[in-house]
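Hello,

Following up on my earlier ticket. Below are the two sequence lines again, exactly as submitted.
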Amino acid sequence: DVKVTQSSRYLVKRTGEKVFLECVQDMDHENMFWYRQDPGLGLRLIYFSYDVKMKEKGDIPEGYSVSREKKERFSLILESASTNQTSMYLCASSYRQRTDTQYFGPGTRLTVL
Amino acid sequence: KNQVEQSPQSLIILEGKNCTLQCNYTVSPFSNLRWYKQDTGRGPVSLTIMTFSENTKSNGRYTATLDADTKQSSLHITASQLSDSASYICVVSAASGTYKYIFGTGTRLKVLA
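Thanks for your patience. The regenerated structure is below:
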C-alpha cells in the first residue's frame, strides 16, 4: 500500500515564525503536491514537484516556498507565518502520468496565532 | 475558466438508503475525473477514476457515471452505511496545460442510524 506521511497532525505557531511541514512518500512517486483545504473553498494547489529539485507554482504560492532534495520528501515552508495561513495542509503524491491517482497524507492542521 | 461544481453541498440520509451526488465541470480539454472520499480529519482517498471513453465505474457500493457530452458526473451510493459519512470530492484534470487537478468543494454526507 502507498503510504504518504506528514510530520505533524496538529501544529500551533505564532505570527512571524518560520514553519516547516514535511511530507514523505514510500512508493518512488515522481510527483508530489502541497494543498491547503479551507471550508467552502475545496483543495487549492500551493506548489507541486515533478522531480527532485524541480518545482512549479500552483494557484496560491504567495507566502510559501518548497524544497525537494530527495525524491521521497517534499517540504512546505512558511517563511513568516500569518494568521491567514491557518488551514489544513494536505500533501499528495502520484506516480507520473496525468491519469495516475493521487495519494494523500493525513493532513496537518496548522493554527497561526 | 476551469471549474468543478458539486451538489448538494450537504446531505443527510438514513442507513440503508441510496443516494446520488452530482458533479458538473467546465474543464477543457478533459482528461479524467476522479471521485474521492474524505473522512473527517483525514486525507482524501480515491474511489474511482474515469477517462473520456468510460461512462460507468464501480467500486463496491459506489458507482460513478460520466457524461462527457454534458460534462456531468454522478456518484451513486447503494445501501448506505454509517461509515459512508464523509465528504465526497469530485476532481477533474485537464488534458493539457499546467499539471494540476481542479477540485470541487465536496458534498458532505451524513448517514444516520
